[in-house]
Amino acid sequence: MQRDTKQRRLVDQAMAGFDDFRSARQLHEAILERGESIGLATVYRTLRSMFVAGQADSMVMPDGETVYRKCSQGHHHHLVCRTCGATIEIVGPVVERWSNNTAAEHGYDEVTHTLEIFGRCATCRADQESDA
C-alpha cells in the first residue's frame, strides 16, 4: 500500500489534468504553475512508485523518453499519435492469446507484456493534408 503524501497527491492531481501521456518534466511544470513546490527528482520517484503500484501507466516514446498517464484499471494497450500524443486505450484479445500461447510453447508462465502502437491520428493527418 502506498503512503498518502502531499507529493503523491500533487503528482496525482497533475496527472488527472491530462488525458494523454506526459513526461515527469511536464508534470513538474504543471505542479509549479499551480503554485505548489516539489522537486523534479521527487516527481520522478513518485511516478515510478505509482507505476509499480499500478496507479499509472508508463511508456517509452520512440525518442527514448518515458512518459506517464493515469489510466483505467485492467490490462490494456495504447494506440498513440506520434504527432500530437493523443492516446487511446485498446484491448487486444488476439495479442493476449498470442503472448500466452507463445510463452507456453517455450515453457514460460507468469507472462506479462506491454504493447504500444504508434501512428498518426485522423486529426493530425487531416491537418497535414490541408496544409499541403
Describe this structure in words.
By secondary structure, this protein is an alpha+beta fold. The protein folds into two domains: 1-71, Winged helix-like DNA-binding domain superfamily/Winged helix DNA-binding domain (Arc Repressor Mutant, subunit A, Orthogonal Bundle); 73-132, 2-Layer Sandwich (Dna Ligase, domain 1), CATH 3.30.1490. Helix content is 43%, strand content 17%. It contains five helices and six strands; from the N terminus they run H-E-H-H-E-E-E-E-H-E-H. The strands form two sheets. It has a three-stranded antiparallel sheet. The chain has a three-stranded mixed sheet with strand order 5-4-6, with no helix packed on it. Strand 4 and strand 5 (87-90) form a beta hairpin. Helix 1 packs across helix 2 (24-33) and helix 2 (24-33) packs across helix 3 (40-52).
Task: Give a short synopsis of this structure.
Helices cover 43% and strands 17% of the residues. The protein contains 5 helices and 6 strands, in the order αβααββββαβα.
Q: Write out the CATH superfamily name of the largest domain.
A: Winged helix-like DNA-binding domain superfamily/Winged helix DNA-binding domain
CATH class of the largest domain: Mainly Alpha
Ends distance: 53 Å
Whole-number count of domains: 2
Regarding quaternary structure, how should these chains be classified?
Answer: single chain
What is the radius of gyration?
A: 17 Å
Strand tally is 6
